[in-house]
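Checklist before submission:
- one chain only
- standard amino acids only
- sequence pasted in full

Submission:
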Amino acid sequence: MKFKRWARKMSALHEPIWRKAGIFEAVNASTYKIHKNTDLVLGVAEKWSPDTKTFVFSWGEATITLEDVMLRKEDYGEAKERMADD
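Returned file contents:
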């Protein structure tokens, strides 16, 4: 809880700098509680192929790239901003 308060306080002071540095969303996201879904994680883990370093599904292989992570982060930031505006 101390980190969450600290992050809020620092965010209020340093938001423009953090945005320019590209860390604003990451710092804010680090204060959220993440609910784990063990069944989902285990279900996806069962599809992992260590030989090909991909997930093997019935429709084909798939993997997660750094670009995918970056795009999801941007989607998350935009969604959060929309929720704040509502």
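Reviewer check: The chain has a mean pLDDT of 83.
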